[in-house]
Predict the structure.
Amino acid sequence: MNLSRLSTNHLAIKISYKRLEEAVENRDEEAVFISLSELLLWIITTEEWHKKYNRSVYFKERKEKGCISLMKGIRHAYNAAKHDMELLKFTTTQGGFSFPMEFPMEFGRVKVIWEKSDVYNKFSYEEQLKGYQKCLEGKEIMATLTEIIEFLNKQRIYREGR
């Protein structure tokens, strides 16, 4: 079994996630799409590694942690990124402006939200679409990606600790 491949996958996830954070902070929609697509690729690739080399433990843990639908939703998002770019919606939260103005002033934070799935469901497998609608649609991308990355990190720790 090739554990160095797993380590490389996790390094790629870490780097891609950092790029995505920076793109969101900079409000750069093209960079967000590119870095998100890259991150989705590495998440899927890492799951494939676990399916091949960590099969029994991975499937059990994925079920126990409630990550089956989330992972299917991630696959749907990855397929949508490959076929159709209408994957994301940018919103800005309201900052703390009030009158009279007080300093320091708070400015709104940019959020990137997973788009409604019927925009691109023609590319979907039914279970992946359902996973997307249940676990991702309308939610902030950074929060949902953090959840699946934490799950994959725990799988890595378990696997490398054996």
Q: What stands out?
A: The longest strand covers residues 88-92. Residues 29-53 form the longest helix (25 residues).
